[in-house]
Amino acid sequence: MGFLLNKCTLKIYDSEVINSCQPFDCGNSDVNDFFCNDALNYYAELLGKTYCFTLDENPEIIICAFTISNDSIKTFNLPNARKKKVNKDIPRQKQMKSYPAVLIGRLGVHKNYRLVNDETDRTGKQLMNFIKSWFIDGANKTGCRFMYIMNLFLYLVMRNKKRNIQLVRMPN
Q: If we measure between CA atoms, which residue out of 9, 118, 100, 94 comes closest to residue 56?
């Protein structure tokens, strides 16, 4: 996770950050508008919390931002194949119709920092790896096994026998 963890700082995306930073531009007007106009309202209404990474050498630059909130995966709405994939590693007596999940509601990487020189992983991949590891570290923030991005369902296995993180993309 080189660039993000070594040359950037994680911050809560609040009015202080917004007022002290240059406007965030990820190249997508909807996402830009959310971070500029809606992120603080989402937090005020307890709908989601936004974080960002700012560049250490110039803290006025927001490298990437993301909003997370609590949600759930409702297995009764899933086709059988997907339901089996979700329930696969959960002991039968613990299987439920709805599982807690982390929702990444919005995510953007500054258009000028998507690929940083001398980095093997793109910044977006580094950000996703950070978010995954952030939620499964020893101080697991939510106790969730699942994570997904708005309309893209991602299955996060948090505790398999080798304690590996598996991320399986499931088609819509």
A: 9
Q: Say how far residue 94 (Cα) sits from the centre of its chain.
A: 26
Which pTM does this prediction carry? 0.82
CB atoms within 10 A of CB 21: 18
Q: Which residues make beta-bridge pairs with 50? A: 67
Average pLDDT over residues 153-161: 44
The three-state secondary structure class of 51 is strand
DSSP states of 90-101 as a string? S-GGG--SEEEE
Please tell me the distance from the alpha carbon of residue 152 to that of residue 147, in angstroms, as a whole number.
10
Q: Which of 56-73 are b and which e, b meaning 16 or more Cβ less than 10 Å from the residue's Cβ?
A: eeeeebbbbbbbbbebeb
**Which domains does the chain show, CATH number per domain?**
2-170 (3.40.630.30)
Q: For the purposes of burial, counting CB atoms within 10 Å of the CB of 161, is it exposed (0-12), middle (13-18) or buried (19 or more)?
A: exposed
Give me the percent of the chain exceeding a pLDDT of 70: 82
- List the one residue out of 21, 43, 20 whose CA is nearest residue 110: 21
Q: How far apart are CA 167 and CA 13, in angstroms?
A: 26
Do residues 127 and 107 lie in contact, with contact meaning Cβ atoms separated by under 8 Å?
yes
Phi, psi at residue 157, to the nearest 5°? Answer: -85, 120
